[in-house]
Design goal:
The chain has 154 residues and is an alpha/beta fold. The protein folds into two domains: 10-47; 64-152, Alpha-Beta Plaits, CATH 3.30.70.2390. The protein has helices at residues 10-17, 21-47, 76-86, 116-123, 149-152; strands at 64-69, 90-96, 106-109, 130-131, 141-145. Strands 2-1-5-3-4 form a five-stranded mixed sheet, with helices on one face. It is elongated and about 80 Å long.
């Protein structure tokens, strides 16, 4: 099934012979372009300054907290969140509670075995935190801000 005196099968040799010179150009460019551009990218990457991971300071946190406004006071959750951040807590969410009728501010422990909720309660001048665990929330404590927060925060 080939051309006499040739080791290349007929259909393949026929396809090679019928390629026009302009058909080779895109193939050649397709093969060489990545090599050329890779060289350019390496030079740009070498010109950038390197940052060592050890040189980035780690800010210690006392735990993750969400603060939910359960009062009708505008900005109450933000004020509580700011106080907690100043004291080293990582406030990961600020929002509204499902109900806006909380008369007292409550701190709820979300993960078993942590002391974050008790520390949050202390930071807010509250007596204690209450266990209401929910591992799916991915926070250590939740603060439900009540109307009494005006008396608690200076």
């Amino acid at each position: 099934m080939g051309i006499p005196g040739s080791s290349v099968p007929f259909p393949l040799k026929s396809a090679i012979l019928h390629l026009r010179p302009r058909g080779w150009l895109p193939i050649l460019l397709g093969l060489c372009a990545p090599i050329l551009f890779a060289g350019c990218q390496r030079k740009e990457a070498l010109a950038l300054p390197s940052v060592q991971v050890d040189s980035v300071p780690q800010i210690p946190t006392r735990g993750t907290v969400e603060v939910l406004n359960g009062s009708s006071l505008t900005g109450a959750a933000s004020a509580v969140a700011e106080r907690l951040r100043i004291r080293g807590f990582d406030v990961v969410k600020i929002g509204n509670a499902p109900d806006q009728n909380h008369t007292r501010t409550l701190v709820v422990e979300r993960r078993k075995g942590g002391s974050t909720a008790s520390e949050v309660a202390d930071a807010l001048g509250l007596r204690r935190a209450y266990p209401m665990r929910n591992e799916n929330l991915l926070v250590d404590a939740t603060v439900f801000v009540g109307r009494d927060i005006e008396e608690t925060l200076p």
